[in-house]
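Worked Example 4.2. Read the sequence first, then its structure tokens.
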Amino acid sequence: MIVRVSRRVRSLCDNLLKLRRQLSSAHQPPRHDMYDPPPERPSESDCCGNGCAECVFDVYDREYARWRHRRRTGQGDRLRRDLLSATKCMPYRIVSARPLGDDDVHAYTFAATPAASGRLPIAYTQHVHVRLADGLDRPYTPVAVADDGCSFDVLVKAYPGGRFTGRLLEMSVDDVVAVRGPYGGVRYDGYDSVVMFAGGTGVAAFVGLIGSALDDDKCETLLRLHYSCKTLDGVLMRKELADYAAYWNCAVHLYLTREHDWSQRSKSFWYIENITKGRISQDCVAKIVDKQQNLKTLWLICGNDEFNRYVFNSLVDYNIKRDDIRLLNNTTKDFEVS
């Protein structure tokens, strides 16, 4: 017996099937690879040929392996990896630039262009390279990464006669630079405490790290920042650091190396600030190390080359294992312990 189905019933069935497909697709997990294209292979001309410790082709091989792992395991996310690359420069515009303190330091905000939504794949303590039109570039560690808007903030120290900073300061809001990265970064999983030594703008490497750790209610890692700068007015992110010091597991110690009228200047100290006159001396390092004797500690250092060498060698002299010491944004070639 043949049953004839009316056009009306057939149309109704088709509509039900269509609705079912729509409902099914609505419950599918979001595609995590929509902002995660494979890294672009660098050209031969991208390699300088100087035998760098980490050649651009080494970076590509590592990033490609990570991309393959994310695709294979499905461990993706919604980070905008399409807007940053460790092997290719991407356009970013200057959103704002403003001076900080009295030490020729400026806070810059860069955002992806064209404008985009989402968060950039930058973890705190990682750094990016900012390149100008003439090819000059410098590494900077973001102090803040926006949760939306694909932007990040960095601190820029303007040196007298500095080619890069001189040209950057001549640029205006909405001018475009090229950004490549991110690189580096550290993890403190498995450590009881993290002790950080910062010199000048090197504090930028730690501000975001401390803030993100304190935002995690489950984090019980002890955080200790020892920050050396010339004057009290030159202390960067002072308000943020004071707020951090109010947490039970965070301590901030400032060292002022060029304050002359100490009795007058000390009147400007905030009640929660722990400030020492002078540099981070050998005696200071010895006391810091002694307080960490019973803790598994990660030691982080970020400053200029002289500062990095001094702190690194001091820690090694006090029998700190080199595997527990990390130098962030170190520009010293062939770094050796004296």
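Now turn to a second chain, presented in exactly the same format:
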Amino acid sequence: SYCCVSRYLVGRSFEHVTFAFVSSRSLASKTPVGFIGLGNMGNPMAKNLLKHGYPIIATDVFPESCKEVQELGAQIVDSPAEVADKADRIITMLPSSPNVIDVYTGSSGILKKVKKGSLLIDSSTIDPAVSKEMAAASEKMGAVFMDAPVSGGVGAASCAKLTFMVGGAEEEFTAAKELLSCMGANVVYCGQVGTGQAAKICNNMLLAIGMIGTSETMNLGIRLGLDPKLLAKILNMSSGRCWSSDTYNPVPGVMEGVPSGNNYQGGFGTQLMAKDLGLAQNTATNTKTPVPLGSLAHQIYRMMCARGYAGKDFSSVFQFLREEEGQQ
């Protein structure tokens, strides 16, 4: 049934016209794709779309962020509205809810020039309520909005191994997946608009709690005289094993190729983790959900931001705990 796309075809009721419209979106694979937000995550994501042969029309509030993708062939324009004027599939990757609201509904935002039937995919991590607001505003303009936040960080973005958690109309998922699969290894449909954000927020709350727990455990073991590499090995063959212990260990020297081995540079910043935990806190309050460990994790990461850790990877909570004890 093609009735699900009838909202795009105001005044057109011929079934073959509807069919042609659906086909044109799913089959016109190499038509231009808009990309807004070329920061640490957006830059490698846009590059992967270019590698797959998609012409990119991009913009960023910081013009210097556009240079790399421009050199690879992307067309750079001045505003989100201009992107929307030239592309009917647009991906946004922005730092926070206010940025998303401005890029979509601001004076030079996407919705000023959006074409009817456009597919708008937001990969920012924001409040699910804002995703729903943007979806409603987009629908009024005849466009489709989907939230598709990511897990995996800069490393996964660079090698197209991200996980996308997608919320929106199920009949649009195939069209979204075509693009997202160029940038990620896993593209998971979560439900209606906002459920992608919900999944991301829940994951990151658990990630923060797990990282703090791993850091406390490693620090205690070290103080009890255990070699940190040996302790990590034992944890990782025991019931305490988790991603923070076996893949992203926070103790310098235990693992190679992780931020703890590089003075906590790169990775997923403490400030961003504090932001995501704030989103988890807001949604927990709104839904009257008790999250005592999530709340404590939020406070710890906020304290870290106030103590100079904002730009360091979130695994630097290990260093923060040792400093609190005066061990550094």
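Notes for the reader: The chain has two domains: 33-192, 199-322. Residues 33-192 form a domain with the Rossmann fold fold (CATH 3.40.50.720).
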